[in-house]
Design brief:
Blueprint lengths: L6 E7 L7 H9 L4 E8 L10 H15 L25 H9 L6 E5 L4 H9 L8 E6 L15 H4 L2 H10 L2 E5 L1 H4 L3 E3 H8 L4 H17 L6 E3 L4 H7 L4 E7 L2 E2 L5 E2 L5 E8 L1 H16 L6
Parallel strand pairs: 1-2, 1-3, 3-4, 4-5, 5-11
Antiparallel strand pairs: 6-7, 8-11, 9-10
Organism: Paractinoplanes pyxinae
Pfam family, one: IU_nuc_hydro
Protein name: Nucleoside hydrolase
Length: 294
């Protein structure tokens, strides 16, 4: 496939935070129109681990082994949030974003966790906001009082200062808030019927999702929202969502919206969940039918 028919992509992921990043990473790597220029393991705060970024990297490396991929760039992101809105957390991941932003065509950077590395890239190289780059962020609560759960949205909570840097900067942002990303739910039965037994990769994806639910849910559950996956489907087919242009807000310490810079951002209000899930399932099944090495 020619480079002209592929989108350049960087994926920033707190891969070991929950159990949905894994599906998004695999979907991207199995998609021929996405030229994945690098994976950036991200931190997910210190509430569950003091080495969350390192755990994200280990999970990425596990997925790459299961996919038998050896040439994918993995560049560590920051180990923790930025201290304030003027001080970057320099990291190989932030530097990778800066370098890739200098290409001739659009760079899509998907953030499946906090915006730490994007904010750091902006603070390290302010000219990046004038380059052809699209930041897709899974984060923030719904607008107009819409919510899928109470309290501060998790990805935002892990670096509020970084979100304010990015939203204030004027860089192109597509925001997928919690009321949208929470609607990408799959059940255990569907996963087993669609991809179960097709490969060691597929079986691991299902197993780790069920194990996460068992460890972290204290109520009956047999499903999970693949909340990070809209970032991938929107890169595959940007018109597969409904957008509204809104003024960029700022974020308060409780996760609520405040008046901001007013730079326009694109708020994602719906995604094509049928396309997202069926495309992902088909690619994972097809991966299981690939010729075996050796």
């Amino acid at each position: 496939m020619s480079s002209a028919s592929r989108r350049r992509v960087v994926i920033n992921t707190d891969a070991k935070n929950e159990a949905d990043d894994q599906f998004a990473i695999v979907h991207a790597l199995l998609s021929p129109t996405l030229d994945v220029r690098g994976l950036i393991p991200a931190h997910f705060g210190q509430r569950r681990s003091v080495r969350s970024m390192e755990e994200s990297r280990e999970e990425i490396e596990l997925l790459l082994r299961l996919m038998e991929l050896e040439d994918v760039v993995v560049a560590d992101g920051a180990a923790e949030a930025i201290a304030d809105e003027v001080t970057p957390q320099d990291s190989p991941g932030a530097r990778l974003i800066i370098e890739e932003s200098k290409g001739d065509d659009t760079l899509y950077v998907a953030f499946l966790g906090p915006l730490t590395d994007m904010a750091s890239a902006i603070l390290l190289d302010p000219e990046i906001v004038h380059r052809d780059i699209v930041v897709i962020w899974i984060g923030g609560v719904g607008y107009g009082g819409l919510e899928s759960y109470c309290g501060i949205e998790f990805n935002l909570s892990n670096d509020i200062a970084a979100a304010n840097v990015v939203f204030d900067s004027g860089i192109t942002v597509w925001q997928v808030p919690s009321n949208v990303y929470s609607q990408v739910s799959v059940g255990y039965a569907e996963l087993e019927e669609k991809i179960g037994g097709t490969s060691a990769l597929a079986d691991y994806l299902i197993k780790q999702l069920i194990e996460f639910n068992d460890a972290h849910h204290d109520e009956p559950i047999e499903s999970r929202s693949l909340g990070d996956s809209p970032a991938i489907s929107l890169m595959l087919f940007p018109r597969g969502g409904q957008f509204r242009t809104v003024p960029a807000p700022r974020f308060g310490q409780e996760g609520h919206y405040l008046p901001g810079s007013g730079h326009p951002i694109r708020l994602v209000e719906t995604v094509d969940v049928r396309f997202l899930l069926e495309d992902m399932f088909a690619k994972i099944r097809r991966f299981g039918r690939r010729p075996q090495a050796g």
